[in-house]
Write a structure and sequence with these properties.
2 copies of one chain form a homodimer.
Chain A lengths: L13 E8 L2 E7 L5 E5 L2 H5 L5 E12 L1 E6 L15 H13 L4 H17 L2 E8 L2 H11 L2 E8 L5 H21 L4 E7 L7 H14 L2 E6 L3 H11 L3 H7 L7 E5 L5 H10 L2 E4 L1 H6 L8 H7 L2 E4 L12 H15 L8 H8 L1 H7 L14 E4 L12 H8 L5 E6 L2 E4 L7 H21 L1
Parallel strand pairs in A: 1-4, 5-6, 6-7, 7-8, 8-9, 9-10, 10-11, 11-12
Antiparallel strand pairs in A: 1-2, 2-3, 4-13, 13-14, 14-15
Helix pairs in contact in A: 3-4, 3-16, 5-6, 9-11, 12-13, 12-15, 13-14, 13-15
Amino acid sequence: MGDMDNIFNKRQSILIANVMVDGKPADIFVNDGGTLAAVGEGVRGQYKGEADLVIDGDEAIALPGLANTHTHAAMSLLRGYADDMILQDWLSQKIWPLEAHLTGSDVYWGTRLACLEMIRTGTTAFNDMYFMMDEAVRAVDESGIRAVLSYGFIDLFNAEKREAECKATEKLAFQIRSMNNPRIKAAAGPHAIYTVSPEGLTWCAEFAKEQKIAIHIHLSETEKEINDCIAQHGKRPAALLDDCGILTPNTIAAHCCWLDDAECALLGKRGVSVSHNPASNMKLATNRAMPVRQLMAAGANTCLGTDGCASNNNLDMFEEMKTAALLQKFFWNDPTVLPAPAALAMATSNGAKALGFGTGTLTVGAPADIVLISVSTACNIPLHNVTSNLVYSCSGSAVETTICDGRVLMLNREIPGEDEILTGAAQAARELVSRSQSA
Amino acid sequence: MGDMDNIFNKRQSILIANVMVDGKPADIFVNDGGTLAAVGEGVRGQYKGEADLVIDGDEAIALPGLANTHTHAAMSLLRGYADDMILQDWLSQKIWPLEAHLTGSDVYWGTRLACLEMIRTGTTAFNDMYFMMDEAVRAVDESGIRAVLSYGFIDLFNAEKREAECKATEKLAFQIRSMNNPRIKAAAGPHAIYTVSPEGLTWCAEFAKEQKIAIHIHLSETEKEINDCIAQHGKRPAALLDDCGILTPNTIAAHCCWLDDAECALLGKRGVSVSHNPASNMKLATNRAMPVRQLMAAGANTCLGTDGCASNNNLDMFEEMKTAALLQKFFWNDPTVLPAPAALAMATSNGAKALGFGTGTLTVGAPADIVLISVSTACNIPLHNVTSNLVYSCSGSAVETTICDGRVLMLNREIPGEDEILTGAAQAARELVSRSQSA
């Protein structure tokens, strides 16, 4: 590519000529403020002289960048470290002991690797929860994509630990605010009702409200969580969260497998975003699928997420769209549940709305988060139905070009610096395992 | 690539240097008879001078070519034509009316497209059932991969129609025998118990036995099939098939969602191969997953298949391995069911055995059906566990090189003639829809 490197990762005006938008031939003009200034037929004629960069779309399908609304990005370093185990054994014997040896540098490399994989597979924004988040912030900043970052707040019902978790949550929020980078937002990250006290949950809700930031939480992933909650609190998890002020239009609740109808109604009423994580739920055998149809009917904002790489084991949102559509049909025993257009909306417009990054549509005035998907590849031949192919036939490998916030991050499958990231992450993972084995 | 085209699609001796076999560094030497002559460390030193072609594996993971044990290859032309519908509506309103307009040329282009997609995603052998199979034979012959091809025998309980189906089955078997191409085998293809009379089933069983060919059938995909069978015959489907002589060690039964324990035991006792088709079963909402664990315990040969593109909608066996492992865990509510090594065995050694194409292993004397999977890609970083990454993290897009029967079909992602196949298939699909709409 040579001096083509100059075109990456910077703001410039971009004309994307000869693509398909919403099934119709179109061109897209992105201004140097990172905004879609024009979309439609004939745009290339009008804006050709004005563009710093012209990309020949070659009839590619243009989509808004996908939004991954629940992950633990740095866990990409644990990809394949342990699988096929009972949840509790998997966590206590494998995942937690390895995580005990994680350093800030590991979190940096794991998050870089995750961002790289997301750029390659067309995701331009994600919702993260982990620890040593200052290093995740650095990785996201350098990667060029968008993220909502939360520190995983776990007080284990202990007042002293709670104090420390509040401080860590505040520190991350203030660090991110001071950066003033519109691609990076903080969230409060109360982990779950079984790891955070009601006092901790309430503190998170109040802090998020005061700081005008989002809340990211795990909700009703397993049946045990429900049964324990009823035994301990005399109510189901969503009601407990509502008592603590957690359910808001800025809240993203991940998993939500075991919600009953009243909980779906409550989440809808509060305008909560729910993140469906079908691959993780299947792999860890949650025994129930998110009631997507009921949540949609109740008015909740239904989104998609991959969960972390330890329980998926990749970050490909195209794969996740398909898995979601298949799992919903299978579990609810109805092939009409979650048709392709609804799965695509979960991964695009609904996800962008949940994360507060624009509309997740390719419309004038939207942020320039754009991915181009090849039509010269078997997964898009024939092209009877673009949306069907995107959801059921293609994987993220069909993505050729990724633009985020008006910056080109991948062009014709080239990502500058990819080898260094792969090498750095592989080395970090090797050393992590080696430290854990010699401990 | 220029004169590199000379290396494709012909028998030659090949040294594949610097790969990983079963987790260990190794080289592979393929003799010009299409057989693995040497595998292990140091092979490159020993065979370098003898090889017509040297491939630098660059530490890639070498795997036996994957075997797709149930598909309808030509249905790739229907990819995305109709989704998200109730099975009966989907078939009667969309699929069958379009299939009514299929020509031999369509079957050729659909099968070429399917073979191309399989080569690209690491599949070197498949088990097909469709019609106008002389055109499928031609497509497979030209594509360079292996297939067991069956005419879909459907007599609809009508003696006259049965006569025609017997003739079509005989014609295909004799055509394939006369070609004397070891990559292509015939099978008898009685469609299912609800489309073929007991007389037709019995004829297929006898013909297969007499001709020493395989049997390919759909079995117990839906609950309705079971209920109707019991109502009509007073027994479950496997018992009915056994009465007709269909259950043999050369039989591949697809789907098998609704088998009970006695049927699993019977299939195991008869040495039947069962093809699990998880994506199709989820998409069409069969409401039960194949009892893989029971079938393994009973001694059945458990394999994997994608089903046709109308109900999947791709032919990526890597995706199918993951979907199988996830569905098994989820449906049987146990994350230890179908661990990664078992899923990989279903797609490789078990599949090769089912199709009668060698052992599906990279061992001396095995047929040279080899795929190389890149380790310089995010899905294989880190590489804590090769098998886990292959099953849970990678899609078929990680495959770089595909060799079948000692012939290079894809090298570093290049497949000669790919554009012509994509163009031909796209045009055939467009014209098919246009014929059906003007009818």
